[in-house]
Amino acid sequence: MKPAMIRALVAAALCTAVVAADEKPPSAEMVLRELKAGNDHHVIKRYQHPHQSAARQRELAAGQAPHAIVLSCADSRVTPEIILDQGLGDLFDIRVAGNVASDTELASIEYAASHLHTPVVVIMGHQKCGAVTAAAESGEAAGHLPSLLGLIRPAIERARSRPGDLIDNAVHINVENVVRQIRTSTPVLAPLVDRGALRVVGAVYSLDTGKVEWLPESAPKAIARLEALRQSVQCVRSH
Predict the structure, then answer these.
(1) Tell me, what CATH number does 108's domain have?
(2) Phi, psi angles (nearest 5°) of residue 120
(3) What are the Cα distances from residue 151, in Å, to 122, 157, 188?
(4) Which of 38, 63, 66, 121 could potentially form a cystine with 84 if both were Cys, beta carbons 3.0 to 4.6 Å apart?
């Protein structure tokens, strides 16, 4: 290969590297549009399978920049990359039964949000969740399950006062609870949410249809005020 051609190829590679380094992370709105479009592909089973090439794998060896954090249930039927039609390096997955957020899950979210600058967190529950069903049942759970089920039971108690299917209602409430928890989590996540650097949304996946139901969003500060008011009322009642 001639020296001039080599210099041209090196210059082109350096230019590409500079452009990639200067690129800003996608906006939360753009990310959500992509995730919703990906779910549409899953529903009709016409996948694009993005970012699943050998070249993408090699590219990611140098680092990652996922555009969405997905906290989802560990259920084998709820795989975010498939139901949202995403590829290698696109999602920062955190999977745990019942899509709950203990300190461990919160730490993972904090890492992706603050160090990788990922702009969106999706909390995704799903239809017929076994963890939610277990939390609704009476009786003693073995091993380490009680600690996990205890995080879901507040949703069960709230769901009992609502008409309709207990488990379906509890799945939705559990997602809403975790969304609120993350939006108000200090000292890392709440400030990111307040200044618009992080958007937290809830979703529920249907095993029957493959469709993701995206839950309505509310202003984070309003949510925080309502939660503080609720806790104050409970405190007064307890005294």
Answers:
(1) 3.40.1050.10
(2) -135, 135
(3) 18, 12, 21
(4) 38
